[in-house]
Every structure is written in C-alpha cells, then in structure tokens.
Design brief:
Helix 3 crosses helix 4. 41% of the residues are buried. A 7-stranded mixed sheet has the order 3-2-1-4-5-7-6, sandwiched between helices. It has 245 residues and is an alpha/beta fold. The protein contains 6 helices and 7 strands. The structure holds zinc ion.
Length: 245
C-alpha cells in the first residue's frame, strides 16, 4: 500500500487566559514566543487591569501588558469580570469566556492552575476557563448563539509559581531554549517594570526555566499541566530532548 502524504498540522490559534496583566508572560512567555515563531496566532484575554496591585495604576498595567503582548507577537484583549482580587465563580463568567472560545476557535487553551494555594483570582479563573471550554461545545447555549459550537483539543494549565503546580499531574515540558525565544520572553517580562519594584520576578522565572531545563536535558523549559490525557496522532510528535542526558 502506498503511504499517504502527510500534511503539516493546521496551526489553529492558541488562546491564553490571565487573571492579571502580567500572569501569562511571567508563567509561559517563552512558550508564547515559541508558538508565534512557528507561525501560530496567539491571543491573550486578561481578566483585570491589576487594579488591586500595590504598584502601578490600571492604566500603566494595561499599557505594560499591551507592550509585552506586542513583543511576544500576541494579540490582547481585556475583559471585565468582577475586578482584580474580587473574582468569583459564576455561570455568567464561564459563559462570557466560552463566547471568546467560540470567537477565537483555538485548538489549545491555557489558563492558570486550579490549585488553591495561590492568588484566589488565579485558580478561580482556571476553574472558569475549564467550565467555559465545556460550555463552548454545547449546541443549546442560547447566550452563545452568535458563533457555532467549538470543541478545543486540549486545555493546559500554567503555574505562576512552584506552589501553584498541581501534584499528581505529569506536566508537558516545552523546550524554549532557542536564543531569540528566551530574549523575547525576557523583554516581555521587562515590559512589566511596575511589577518588579519589590522582587526581581524576571530573574526568578528565568531560574525556574533553567531548573526545568536541567531536569529535562535542555537549556530552558516551561511546564504545562494537561487537564485531560494527551492523545498523539503519531509518535513523531515526541522530541529527542529527553535523551540528551
Ligand atoms: Zn496574577
């Protein structure tokens, strides 16, 4: 039998949700830069303007987030839910997020982990996004009729800090070692200058990526925690990175 030619997988958009203006960049900015470099559209949905933060006005935080998204090559929109530090789990929020999923139609979604030992907005947003991914599929949702139902391929959770990493979930490790990827990620974090007045989060996140890289045999790596089992269409998707020890 003649083998059928394989076509490259369609690069459907990646949709990233953040509770605060800098969450996506500090957690998975390298992954974003990498996906953009591969030709994928990445869209950020930021669900507050950081108005409860100690440093930086909402206007400044918005400006910094827009600059960071631009550096990474992502598009960005802001969504008002309950406001910074006030986010609650409500069906109407999940429906609003589901409407974005139907509009952008991603294969991959990323959101904060649902581990409660972190900023409450983070795990609540992760919970809302998980609900939204389900609601986006349901044909009978009256509020979502503007766009047809949409099923995603995978929801991944990201952890802004080690204590937000879920236990018992094997992460997917993304190699972000290429020099221009790390440079772009660093610049995106530097764009959030108002948030580095108390601690050098840039250095901390870089050290974390180095540590994950060390554990996986690459220079820098970032983790994603899958919400559901990952199904490979082919074993070709498995890289040789883990065999470099
Ligand atoms: Zn945050």
């Amino acid at each position: 039998m003649k083998p059928t030619p394989t076509s490259p997988p369609e690069l459907a958009p990646l949709l990233a949700f953040g509770a605060h203006p800098d969450d996506i960049e500090f957690s998975i900015g390298g992954i974003v830069a990498q996906e953009v470099a591969l030709g994928r559209r990445v869209h950020f949905v930021v669900c507050s303007r950081g108005e409860a933060g100690t440093h930086g006005s909402p206007a400044l935080r918005t400006k910094e987030a827009k600059k960071a998204a631009e550096i990474l090559g992502a598009s960005i929109e802001f969504m008002r839910l309950d406001g910074d530090a006030h986010l609650e789990i409500k069906a109407r929020h999940a429906i609003k997020l589901a409407a974005v999923i139907r509009r952008i139609r991603p294969v991959v979604i990323v959101a904060p982990t649902v581990v409660p030992t972190q900023h409450p907005d983070h795990w609540r947003l992760g919970t809302l996004v998980r609900d939204a991914a389900r609601l986006a599929r349901f044909g009978g949702m009256k509020e979502l009729r503007k766009n047809p139902p949409h099923a995603i391929g995978q929801l991944f959770f990201y952890a802004l800090s080690p204590n937000a990493e879920p236990t018992g979930v094997t992460p997917v490790i993304v190699d972000i070692s290429r020099a221009h990827i790390v440079t772009s990620w660093k610049s995106a974090m530097e764009a959030h200058a108002s948030q580095m007045k108390t601690r050098n989060y840039l250095e901390l996140q870089l050290a974390r990526a180095r540590m994950h890289g060390l554990a996986s045999g690459v220079g820098h790596a970032q983790l994603l925690f899958p919400d559901a089992p990952i199904v490979f269409e082919s074993l070709a998707a498995i890289s040789r990175a883990a065999q470099r020890f």
